[in-house]
Amino acid sequence: MLGFSLTGLFILTCSYLAVQPLCRTVNEETICQTNYEAFLKSPPNEKGDTLAGLAGSLAFLWIIVTVLMQGRELSYQREELERMRETQEEQTKLLTAENVRRDQAAADAKIRAMYEVLRSSLKDMAFMEFKFEATPGDRGKRTTIPFLNASSGSRIRTHITGMGPTEWAEKIDKTRNLVIKHRTEKNCAVLAPEPPVSWFACLSQVDVIIREANIEGSEAMIEWVLHDLKLPLLKKVLKEALEDRSMWAQPDELTKNMGNHA
User: Fold this and answer.
1) Where is coiled-coil annotated (predicted)?
2) Which residue of 68, 160, 226, 238 sits 20 to 30 Å from the alpha carbon of 97, by its own alpha carbon?
């Protein structure tokens, strides 16, 4: 459209110049005629030069028009490419967000599956029995009798019956306090068992669940593991109980310690 408009303007300009008068003085006589009439009366070589000049001007005009049109088309193409790029970026963001949600859901599902395994481990934890025998005293002096593997004496038992992590932590802590109380306040000798493998296994599982929740879990999963289930409390109580030698001291070690105390 721009090219045709400029071409029409060029033709109108040439037509206007063609009808303009051209006056010359010949032998003291002024002769006036239009440029077009002068063109018709001019020699062939001048006609050719004039037409060549007009054609060159028109060609140069169309070169300018072509450059302008190409520039406009390139601008449209850039705008279209920019819109396509923005659309692709939006699609990439949506796909990335969907992948993140899917990965997050898979991570949360894995943590929940690990917790179900922990629940089974808690239910299957070994039956524990602590046996106590009173230590007789003679005029206030403490002595130690051999540890008896007998059913007499006080007993503290812990047994998992499907309790949750919080109840289990309270049970372990209560058992630990009772064992220490019998050994210290009541002057009882204890035939302590070895720390059960199941306790170490549960401690390891709890530690893995907490670590996975902090690294890969969603905010809701972290809230569930740390605050709803209170697994850090169970981890703390289990670790303290397993590391407390007053619960798991062997007979020889306990006899030596009590002898040194006496």
Assistant:
1) 71-98
2) 226
Check residue 225 and report its DSSP letter.
I
Q: C-alpha angle with apex 160: 158 to 163, nearest 5 degrees? A: 120
Distance CA 125, CA 13 (A): 105
Please compute Rg for the chain using Cα positions. 51
- Considering the domain architecture, whether residues 134 and 240 belong to the same structural domain is answered as yes
Structure tokens at 148: 């008896």
- Phi, psi dihedral angles at 126 (to 5 degrees): -65, 145
Contact indicator for 152, 144 with CB cutoff of 8 Å: no
Q: Which secondary structure element, helix H or strand E, spans residue 56, and what is its range?
A: helix 44-123
185 DSSP assignment: T
Q: Provide the token pair at 36.
A: 């077009």
Q: What is d(CA 16, CA 38) in angstroms, rounded to the nearest whole number? A: 14
The C-alpha atoms of residue 153 and residue 241 are separated, in whole angstroms, by 22
Residue with more model confidence, 134 or 73: 73
**Does 208 fall in a domain?**
yes
Neighbour count for residue 246 (Cβ, 10 Å) = 14
Residue-number span of the structural domain to which 135 is assigned: 111-261
* 238 and 146 share one domain: yes
pLDDT, tens only, 242-251:
888 777 765 4
Phi, psi of 211, rounded to the nearest 5 degrees: -65, -45
Three-state secondary-structure class, residue 11: helix
Task: Count other C-beta atoms under 10 Å from residue 85's C-beta.
Answer: 10
Q: Domain total for the chain?
A: 2
Q: How far apart are the C-alpha atoms of 50 and 58, rounded to whole Å?
A: 12
Query: What is the distance between the alpha carbons of residues 199 and 206, in angstroms, rounded to a whole number?
Result: 11
Q: Quick: pLDDT tens for 98-138.
A: 999 999 999 999 999 999 999 888 876 655 666 665 555 43
